[in-house]
Amino acid sequence: MDKALLNRESFIGGSEANMLYMNYNTKTFVKWWEHKLTGFPPRRFTNINMSVGTILESDILDLYESVNRVKGERDLQKIKGIARASTDYVLDNKVSDVKATSKAFEWFLNERVPINYKRQLIHYLYVFGLSEASIIAYQVDDKLLNEPFSELNKDKLFEIPVKITDKEIQLHKNKIEYLDYCKSMNIFPVVSK
Fold first, then answer.
1. Quick one: pLDDT at residue 39?
2. Cα–Cα distance between 135 and 118 in angstroms, integer?
3. CATH numeric code, 8-185
């Protein structure tokens, strides 16, 4: 097993990046930070959409590479202090996260993804030192949820570029470094007044 996945609870991963922006006094944050301090994993829940997304991820990337005639790197892992990143896809200087969702076309039309996914990409840019990001999204429907091994259609594949500024990466870095300090001191973070 790769060292980036060992002691997973001791690090902050990309899927947890949104937690950095929460109020430190909320029950959700406190519970999450307790797991970081103790190293005990929280209970994980999955649903049908998450399971189908996991099943489809490789096929979506195969389709993306076929349509765009590119070949990137999959499942790269890296640790930077307390930050851990396990990416879906890296092509040149761009990191992409793969999402199988009923919202893919909507995100593409609006040129916007949910903030938690943007923060996940900010996390990856910070850890890997890359400069571009996108979401590779595949439009799912009930039929695909029930038959996840069906052939994928290139017309349902969308790439949504996500603009991330240096200022956003610096803010993320500051939050990571503060929590790294708190973890080293075995304390809860506080909001400065």
1. 82
2. 9
3. 3.90.320.10
CA nearest 24: which of 191, 161, 136, 193?
A: 191
Burial of residue 173 (CB within 10 Å: 0-12, 13-18, 19+) is middle
Alpha-carbon distance of 161 to 87, in angstroms, equals 16
First to last CA, the chain: 43
Q: Which of 158, 182, 164, 160 is nearest to 127 (CA)?
A: 164
Angle between helices 166-185 and 27-38 (to 10 degrees): 60
Q: Which stretches of the chain drop beneath a pLDDT of 50?
A: 1-5
Kindly give the interhelix angle for 115-128 and 166-185, rounded to the nearest 10 degrees. Answer: 80
Domain boundaries, the chain: 8-185
